[in-house]
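User: Predict the full complex structure for these chains.
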Amino acid sequence: MGYNLDMVDQRFSVSIHIMTALAFHKGELMTSEQLAGSIRTNPTVIRRLLAKLVEAGLLESFKGKSGGVKLAKSPKEISLKDIYAAVCCDKKLIATPDKEASKQCVVSCNMGKLLDDVVNGIENNSMNYMSNICLSELTARIK
Amino acid sequence: MGYNLDMVDQRFSVSIHIMTALAFHKGELMTSEQLAGSIRTNPTVIRRLLAKLVEAGLLESFKGKSGGVKLAKSPKEISLKDIYAAVCCDKKLIATPDKEASKQCVVSCNMGKLLDDVVNGIENNSMNYMSNICLSELTARIK
DNA sequence: TTATATTGTACCTATATCTGTTACATTAAC
DNA sequence: GTTAATGTAACAGATATAGGTACAATATAA
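Assistant: Here is the predicted structure of the four-chain assembly.
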């Protein structure tokens, strides 16, 4: 059975693929089946992500026969940050432990806030970088 | 049993804690037992990370009685990038699928390289940011 | 009106990976 | 020699994602 041996979180990558495919097809409707074919995965995996992208206002979906999804905005108005926020909003790029501090240890007592600041700094830096890359830049690279 | 309900990768966060504690103790030797106390985890978890930090040249370790680890450099010469590279070098911040492209689909055929470029851009951006935060800045925040 | 095709979920299994833990060989100080 | 430390190996427990089946709801199309 062709299991993927790398079981880490690929939702962001797959979502970029989805959005790029939709942008490449110039706002036309595509089905989860078509997208799953391009990405070589199961349509349900795609639909799980589509639901989040719809919820975030990046896509519009249409049920029923000849339904599907399409971009809700122009590719110039959608950034990688938008996609990341839509799909991975529940998860930090870098995790911090949530254990209680060891009261006798000054370092331990300060570490919670220190790590939060560090991680937030890294995340904000990444989000800022991603907000400057838009979908149209990605489709421009497809030859 | 006090299991941590958040089973995501905390190696970077824990390593920052380790390095900050060692810097705070001004280059003195500390044992994995002491560090584990501050971090509230098992000494083996700490030693696994120490091994990587030693291998990367950030720490020196001493076996045997009254052994332990200490910083191999000044806190000003150690950045978050160094720590990240030492401990998480085997893992991308953002994962990409490694499936074969769907040959009939132009988007699919271009997506491998496109995603690599995107992810490398994000990683390089993060590494650059992290290279500008050094250990001495972290210890300065401990009150 | 009926058949069809699609989204949107719910649910389950397999897998990978990390954490926590025990155990022990190796090593160096005392 | 005893002791206390690192460095690993091995294993169980927990979690999250991917992949997959099934089906209700829905809207087009015939």
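Strands of chain A lie at 59-62, 68-71.
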